[in-house]
Amino acid sequence: MDLLYKVFIDPFVQMGTAPDLLVQTLWDGLVAGVLYSLIALGFVLIFKASGVFNFAQGIMVVFAALALVGLYDTLRRWGVPAGALAAYLALAVTIAVMFGLAFVIERVMLRPLVNQPDIILFMATFGLTYFLIGFGELVFGGDPKVMIAEQLGLPRGAIDIKMAGGFVSMQKIDIAAVIIVSLMVAALSFLFQRTRIGRALRAVADSHKAALSVGISLEHIWVVVWFAAGIVALATGIMWGARSEVSFSLQIIALKALPVLILGGFTSIPGAIIGGLIIGIGEKLGEFYWGPLLGSGIESWLAYFIALVFLLFRPQGLFGEKIIERI
Amino acid sequence: MLRELSVRAPTGPDVAAGDVLLAVEDVSLAFGGVKAVSGVSFDIRKGEIRAIIGPNGAGKTSMLNVINGFYQPQQGRIAFKGKTRAKMRPHEAAAGGIARTFQNVALFRGMSVLDNIMAGRTLKMHRSFFWQLLRHGPALREEVEHRLFVEEIIDFLKIQEIRRTPVGRLPYGLQKRVELGRALAMEPELLLLDEPMAGMNIEEKEDMSRFVLDVNDHYGTTIALIEHDMGVVMDLSDRVVVLDHGIKIADGTPAEVMRNQAVIDAYLGVAH
Q: What residues pair up with B42 in beta bridges, in sequence order?
């Protein structure tokens, strides 16, 4: 009885008696969720257009962040004064670098492997991962770096909002992250739904040979999606980098995207967003209210557990396409 | 005025009706040790319906794949509108005016009928990406123009009621019709149909035959089709080329081909 009370009643009593803590937990969950969504989005973009699960998405995040910081340092050494000018110049060059990366990946990796089974392309992204690790270390060095968040104009500090006898503390950078990610997601959804390129992207996702036959060039589309995934990686790198530091260990956040993808479906942009929010909020609520029952530390596996339970009922994910095969 | 022309461009004036539109010369294609096509030559004249027939495994689909650039032949040349090309990729073939359908329907299953056929207009849309994002001004006008064209095709193929349905849910016969619609949306000069009537019942076959004839009549589109139903081939085509084991064994009018001993042997077998 006591256990049942602790599992089913007590947490909700706590929520009711201390609403400020509940709101704080929800907010933390929302922020984490938004960042998970962002990582998942990078996977979804590439999976939709080429059917490849891009193992390198995590390292692309690190690579983009390192490139940004590294270029900023280089510009400083060349005599550009520290501050917004150098930061935004570095950002522009980094975007160009990500485009270059997309272009080279298409040329060197995807084009020769066209029409190969998906597993081959998946393995190729492993190769890409290790190449980027080695190349990144060679160019930018192996030690952790500090993200140039302040120079990019991202706010610092926190806002405290009084409520119900306590207060909720929101980091300004988290608020900025939520806004920026929302805008990016809106722009990407619009791109997919409403433009000719979007129609071409969806067409390629559905059938390569049919897309080719109506004159859509797979090469262009692949450069576009890898570039878009690169931009998403850059945004992720800035946001995560600003909260901790920029180092190669950051790439494991890509693993956080897996439960999000399982939940949201590999092919759905709204799925990536909703999935990210469910995982983020679920994780924080679970950790805060139910965690003590299990001796805490459940945050690291709860996401996978939620995803597994989901798999039992909706194997295609929340928004994934249900595949009906003619037998 | 100019835009009007680019949207409703009639088929190119550079090749007159009856002239050779596409010439296949001595084309060979092999996959490893398997010869799919060996030394095949034939031509397709502007405005005709040209059938490619032959028993299973004769190399018919391989031939179409060579024509629209899916396969690169190891030997031989292909001249389209008088221009010989060394190597052409599928999207370049599409841009040049070659559209096709597939033996086992290849549609964008998750998209509606309308979006599928609109996808056929991809190459005809020129407004920049920026304007499309804004969905405003020239880009919006362009979208409307293309939409009108697509609605015409939908009317022509009598698929008005299903225009919003995702094609994955449609029965096979209708999917084939949508696929034809998407090819027509490209306003092709040469339309390649890979077994357009495969798996259809008599009624659907009659409908499809009528569409093929109408396309040829109304739009003056040159058509190359692969078909197994001899009745259909006899009724539709102006000239027939017969392949067997990757080799051309006959070429002529349907009546000539039917009387050809090599063709009869290929289809019925020879006593040894």
A: B24
